[in-house]
Hints:
Blueprint: H1 2-8, E1 18-31, E2 50-63, E3 68-74, H2 79-93, E4 100-104, H3 112-118, H4 121-129, E5 131-135, H5 145-156, H6 165-181, H7 192-198
Parallel strand pairs: 1-4, 4-5
Antiparallel strand pairs: 1-2, 2-3
Helix pairs in contact: 2-3, 3-4
Amino acid sequence: MEDVLDVYKRPFDINKPVICMDETNKQQIKESRKSISASPGHPEYYDTEYERNGTSNIFIAFEPLSGKRYLSVTDRRTKIDWARFIKETVDNHYFEAEGVILIMDNLNTHKCSSLYEAFEPKEAKRIMDKLEIHYTPKHGSWLNMAELELSHLNRQCLNRRIPDQEVLKDEIALWENSRNNKHCKANWQFSCEDARIKLKKLYPDYISK
């Protein structure tokens, strides 16, 4: 926990940005009956019945100090999918940076070994060398600021029925562009000093010798 909190105290560095990575999923739902459009004084009406139309995975890379975020919609969230998203992040969005400080949870797919399953060893090593990885502790996903950004996504964009993956991609792209154009940053205030007071029970008992 304190390792991640120390990373968040680092000043903005364009050559080595701090990136928080996370993922979520969205079930696509098709209407079984045509909805009634909204009219003055009346909201949109839709039938409680619906048709399930598969589930998509959503990756996000969020740079809290610059207010940039990049999202990718995939069919699944396998090791290969994660590796491809990391490569896209490193090569497309941060190709000019010397390195990327990556914060994420310790999911079994979030390993450098996944890069070697997806790419040739030389390519996997090249990507890996650009990463400085910091994992959030078990049951400490709240330390990942990408999780906060996904909460905004769910409330502002995904809190309704979306029929298929193509519509999902379009809606997420519009949301991403809107947030990036507004430079929506994260104002993280929680520090190691705060943790030692508010989360004292999580620390082992100190015995003075």
